[in-house]
Amino acid sequence: MEKLKSALSNCYLSLIVLFMYAPIATLVVLSFNSGRSRAQWSGFTTDWYVAMWADETIMAALRNTVIIAFLSAFVATVLGTLAAIAINNMKPVSKNIIMSITNVPMLNADIVTGISLMLCFIAFRISLGFHTILMAHITFNLPYVILSVMPKVRQASKETYEAALDLGATPFQAFLTVVLPELMPGVTSGFMLAFTMSLDDFIITHFTRGAGIDTISTLVYSQVRKGISPTMYALSTVIFLTVFIVLMIGNYAPEWAKKRKRTV
Amino acid sequence: MSRNLLELQNITKSYDGQLILDDLTLDIHENSFVTFLGPSGCGKTTTLRIIGGFEKPDKGRVLFDGKDITNLPANKRQLNTVFQKYALFPHMSIEDNIAFGLRIKNKTDAYIKDKIKYALKLVNLDGFEKRSIDSLSGGQQQRIAIARAIVNEPRLLLLDEPLGALDLKLRQEMQYELIRLKNELGITFIYVTHDQEEALTMSDYVVVMNQGYIQQAGSPEQIYNEPENAFVADFIGDSNIVPGIMVEDYHVRIFGADFKCVDAGFGNNKPVDVVIRPEDLEIIDDDDPRAILHGEMTHIIFKGEIYEMECTTPDGFEWLIHSTELHEPGKKVGLYVKPSNIQVMNKPESEDEEALGVEE
Ligand SMILES: Nc1ncnc2c1ncn2[C@@H]1O[C@H](COP(=O)(O)OP(=O)(O)OP(=O)(O)O)[C@@H](O)[C@H]1O
Ligand SMILES: [Mg+2]
């Protein structure tokens, strides 16, 4: 009986994983297919990857994507961490209000956020381009950073900060040497989260990008309309792997660090 | 008399409208060992936080070496604190914790290494340099907190119940080490505890606090032998505190019995409180002419060096008596007290003063 139960539950789990990853597996397989057909396997090739490297528009889009993801995640992490500290020092009432205000954009539909950002840029006569995408990404990344840093800020003890002051550190030194290390797990996971959110955003980028600049997601979108080329499969595979690896690092890095510390 | 290193002048502090420190004034001499003694919540930590610069008083001034430091930030003050909750840096090794203050002051590596070694030896934790903080027991953490503060050789060291987590033996060892340290380095200590025995054995000067007031400040002998009010008498060790009438100078009446005493100046027929320490009550024969009170032994506990006994007098009061001689319960005895062992105190007069008293 017990055996049957565990067999069933394993079966169920495998099915779920299969359904979730089957489409991605298809994509990965097709990216190595030498023919253009989506239905027929005509031999293994890495040509599409080579073609992808050679394609200037794809490479430009890739560069934009990574740079925007990195910059927006970085800026959002700095601003978000400081914001979390400030919010935590507020009185309970204002703390609650501010936290709900920062949480709303996360629940908001991307399309609403995208359109409103676009309208806002136009209203302030900011021409759309790289910088508007960057600003938009910083904006939607902020709440994620605040949310992941907040628990650490709450846990961080005021006492260690005061102890650092007591030993002669300036408030800034005390922050760098004592407070920040305590927040670090939250800060890195906030950064990772922001980085991946930015990496795979399409809708908000679409509305705030203006003509003449593409990120990977907007490029794929415009190519799909023209009829999709297998280089896009190769590209999507690369993106999937990147996001997958970043997420893995984000999830397991704190534990690795802990283990290493223990063995030292 | 040496000069004042620290002066607290009329320090008042309240949290959320609740008065925590009320007009506290105190001078602390250079090179002295001062203890703040008082029950939990009486404002000891708050006072230390004001001295350390982590809290601003609502009113009053803090002078260090004659200079007003009330508004000086904590990191600019020439003092260090051993925090009640240790406040060690969890992501640093023990070595780095201890070196923290020295690195801020840009001391050389050789100097720092020397100091770490010296400090660890002092707190009985040699060889712990590389260990992580969370691998330490509470008592060990407490000793690291002491080591981290003293390596900086501050002029004033604030210690907030620094031996609270230690067992009796280690506690006594550390008490001894701290006193030695104080004499060796010439550091002035302000020491917080709610353990009266610790306060009396370690300090030059004891400040007894309750509910934000200083109840009495003085040498351990003064505090023990001449408590100024019932709170102090009760807080410092066991004692018999009884109401009495000061009939005239050198003559006090307790439960209708007349005692000779050495106190004067209270006026005639004034109600007073009288303290008699349990070791000062002498048990004598019931028919001994010296007997002032007569009663019956009612209770006895063996306490190691002494017997703790109770003797009930006809008025119903149970006198606590410490003696090396055993007197069985049921025995009728007489009680005698030397005049110099009777301590007469003013009864609290105003309601405000009453609030400071002991709640029975
Ligand atoms: N930041 C604060 N906000 C509000 N009330 C506080 C704050 N800090 C201390 N108090 C209150 O002030 C009073 C005195 O606290 P304090 O920590 O000075 O006591 P203590 O004498 O050190 O007691 P203990 O022996 O338990 O450490 C307590 O009633 C406490 O609740
Ligand atoms: Mg305290």
How would you portray this structure in words?
The complex is a heterodimer of chains A (264) and B (360). With 264 residues, chain A is mostly helical. Chain A has 11 helices and no strands. In chain A, helix 4 (92-107) crosses helix 6, helix 6 crosses helix 8 and helix 8 (171-199) runs antiparallel to helix 11. Chain B has 360 residues and is of the alpha+beta class. In chain B, strands 6-7-8-3-9-10 form a 6-stranded mixed sheet, with helices on both faces. In chain B, strands 13-12-11-14-20 form a 5-stranded antiparallel sheet. In chain B, a hairpin with a 2-residue loop joins strand 4 (59-64) and strand 5. The interface between A and B is medium-sized, with 20 and 23 residues. Residues 15-16, 20, 38, 40-46, 84, 194 of chain B line the site of adenosine-5'-triphosphate.
Protein traits:
heterodimer, A: 264 residues, mainly alpha, MetI-like fold, 11 helices, B: 360 residues, alpha+beta, Rossmann fold, OB fold (Dihydrolipoamide Acetyltransferase, E2P), six-stranded mixed beta sheet, five-stranded antiparallel beta sheet, 9 helices, elongated, disordered C terminus, binds adenosine-5'-triphosphate, binds magnesium ion
